[in-house]
Amino acid sequence: NMVMSFRVSDLQMLLGFVGRSKSGLKHELVTRALQLVQFDCSPEVFKKIKELYETRYAKKSSEAGQPQPQQHRSPEALSIHSSYDRGSTVARTSISTTNIDYPALYGKYLNGLGRLPPKVVKPEVRLVKLPFYTTLDELLKPTELVPQNNEKLQESPCIFALTPRQVELIRNSRELQPGVKSVQVVLRICYTDTSSPQEDQYPPNIAVKVNHSYCSVPGYYPSNKPGVEPKRPCRPINLTHLMYLSAATNRITVTWGNYGKSYSVGLYLVRQMTSAELLQRLKTIGIKHPELCKALVKEKLRLDPDSEIATTGVRVSLICPLVKMRLSVPCRAETCAHLQCFDAVFYLQMNEKKPTWMCPVCDKPAPYDQLIIDGLLSKILTECEDADEIEYLVDGSWCPIRAEKERSCSPQCPILVLGSSDVNGLLPTPNGNGENGKTTADVVDLTLDSSSSEEEEEEEEEEDDDDDGPQPKRRCSYEKGLVSAC
């Protein structure tokens, strides 16, 4: 309550006392001060808050013509306070401060903020950037969850308030789905590790309460492998629907299991993106010019003649390895060593549902900011509609590789093509003569395999499907054709 009654100058005094930033609007200063009380309140900080409150009370009494109680006055606080009132940005601490031992005072105040003066810059926990979330504001820097006792289950509260601008951003944002705004307040949790940007990681037994209601936390992905525990997808937790979209303060309580590992939590105002939006952005800024792609092909053939490359060039499939369909937006990561592409549309959709950002071709990281659209292969896809594979040649040119099924059963290729009409529901022409006997034999063979023999050998065919592989290979057998003709 004391902090909530402070003016801007009081808040700046308090934040300056602990070495925190004093810039920003009053809402931001109040939020910063409340977070200080929640997470870093030492006896010295509490004493300072009380001192500022009493000083303000004393000044009000003075302005009203009432005598000021001397026990509420602090010469040091008053002098700094009055310097702010006069518009100075630097506190004048030289007045009435001779009786204060600053090194001793600041030395007692540790709480992760360092000794002042001199100010020690402590490395901060950083979270990795997420492609599907654009950060608009940082509401709470990653702050360590500190156990308050030896219990395994801990509770850590946090209080903050939104500015009117932030409330408007949320209110005016479009809905991704009914009840879910694209601009959100999200909670992110990670290991307390300052060595590198951290991925989201939930502590055990996590529960998040916003004001008076519990927020849903993503469940577990089931594991298909025996003995392997299911994995929880650790994503930002959307708190928006449970918050007060006003100037009122919001209270968030994180319940977590204390089993030795240290975690930090941060609060962010974000805009959640869709896979369609990321695709459009990629098409705008991520297309690699065909000539650059051609130069890469030539370099690949020159530098890597042994790996997956024939004597004349390298083959690239026009079928996406993710969905086994023809590529529409050929894409790969710039860090990938291969020329093979996957489809950006399906890749982004899959990562929207389950973010892994792993290349489906080489199984190495393919993060969004490393993706490129292959301009050369895009051009080839429009020019080559009757082939599923092409070959790049040493000079950077290309040629289509026709479907090999036309020549797979070489002795009977024309007859097999003719026989396929039977499968489509057209009966063979009963010319009956078959001068050399071979045509009639093969037509009968295909007819038996595709229709009448199914009833007689149904069980046998089912076993063959399971044990001996696909039927077409068996039906193309030359010996089988002779037996059926007899």
UniProtKB/TrEMBL annotation:
Entry's Gene Ontology cellular component terms: chromatin; nucleus
EC number: 2.3.2.27
Example GO molecular function: ubiquitin protein ligase activity
Annotated spans, Disordered: 60-85, 426-486
Keywords on record: DNA-binding, Isopeptide bond, Ligase, Metal-binding, Nucleus, Transcription, Transcription regulation, Transferase, Ubl conjugation, Ubl conjugation pathway, Zinc, Zinc-finger
Major place of residence: nucleus
Subcellular location(s) of the protein: Nucleus
Protein name: RING-type E3 ubiquitin transferase
Organism: Chauna torquata (Southern screamer)
Upper classification of the organism: Eukaryota, Metazoa, Chordata, Craniata, Vertebrata
